[in-house]
Amino acid sequence: MEKVFVSPSRYVQGKDVFKKADQYVKKLGDLALVVADETVWKAAAEAFSAQLKKGGIEVVKEVFQGECSINEINRLTESGKAKKVNVVIGLGGGKTLDTVKAVADHLDTPVVCAPTVASADAPTAGLSVIYTDDGAFESYLFYDKNPELVIVDTRIIAESPHRMLVSGISDALATWIEARAVAEGHNNTMSGKQPTLAGKAIAETCEKVLFDYALPAIEANQKKIVTPALEAIVEANTLLSGLGFEDGGLGAAHAIHNGFTALTGDIHHLTHGEKVAYGALTQLVLENKPFDELERYIGFYLKLGLPTSLKEIHLEKATDEELYKVGEKATAPGETIHQMPFAITADDVVQAIKGVDAYVKDYKSRHGWSVESKKELLAMD
Ligand SMILES: [Zn+2]
């Protein structure tokens, strides 16, 4: 039985660390391909690149087109090859970072992930999630190594949209329940090996930090201030969740998220984390854990304002046929749902998706829950 633990070589987090970017990057290369989307170029990547230039690092600018697809990866790889870059840097959200990891793999250079939102697990992971040009989940791409550097400026995160931080919290909330399920079944992590005690401990700590600090961190984000609670949640969303999923393993929650991408329509407007929220609740229903735990999670998702009903994921009018598409994609061969401790069919997934909606309705009526009560707990913007 082989255990494996992987991680980025260096993780740096703090207020204004982007102002020291050159010091960290120059150890890795002196001709950088810097990739960010149009918005992120204006908000952060221009200043980041200026800092690199101050430190004597040349910059090749590229604008990310929005999807982590094979076409986009090939386009950026060609650009990097033509300019002979020796380090690849991505600034932005999960899709940008997943793309630069693939580009660096093709170019055989170090890669730097500089997330400007704390919304997903991409920055630390040694893998990318590949989508079609239309945004449907296609496959996971695995690399020989994790990023050489992850650099997170919490002042930039504090100014990022509230919805992205909450999405990251949701993505991170799935980490422990998925890692726990993988461990219970003696199944494998993302590297195809057994989880280490370290991987499990990180995933479990991730959950604790989220329940302790998510609400004050959201408040800080809304006021655009950096507090210790915000720092804790940025670390939970990025480092603990990133290592927790890669070294602890994924289960049903992310497979069901991938299942949702089989559908067209408004569900596409949900973020990764919002779809994962419903996937995580669906996994909890499938696991049939003691009712207290399901209630604890439902209550927390409601306070966070995450989607917990079919209506909120735009599936209230979905036909059984459509839901079976989700179930079939979620249980496709190779999906992480097969790392769960028990077998799950497409039909089981469909029943549990409907189960979440029913349980949440019941929870709301027993707890007198309304939109107003949510607003009292958490001033939404
Ligand atoms: Zn995720």
From TrEMBL:
The keyword NAD applies. GO terms for cellular component: cytosol. Its cofactor is Zn(2+). Its EC number is 1.1.1.6. Transmembrane segments: none annotated. Keywords: Metal-binding, NAD, Oxidoreductase, Zinc. Pathway: Polyol metabolism; glycerol fermentation; glycerone phosphate from glycerol (oxidative route): step 1/2. Glycerol binds at D121, D171, H254, H272. Pfam families: Fe-ADH (PF00465). NAD(+) binds at D37, G94, K95, T96, L97, D98, T116, V117, A118, S119, L127, Y131. The keyword Transport does not apply. It catalyses: glycerol + NAD(+) = dihydroxyacetone + NADH + H(+). CDD domains: GlyDH. Binds 1 zinc ion per subunit. One of its GO terms (molecular function) is metal ion binding. Residues 8-154 form the Alcohol dehydrogenase iron-type/glycerol dehydrogenase GldA domain. InterPro entries: ADH_Fe/GldA, ADH_Fe_CS, Glycerol_DH. Belongs to the iron-containing alcohol dehydrogenase family. This is Glycerol dehydrogenase. It comes from Sporolactobacillus inulinus CASD.
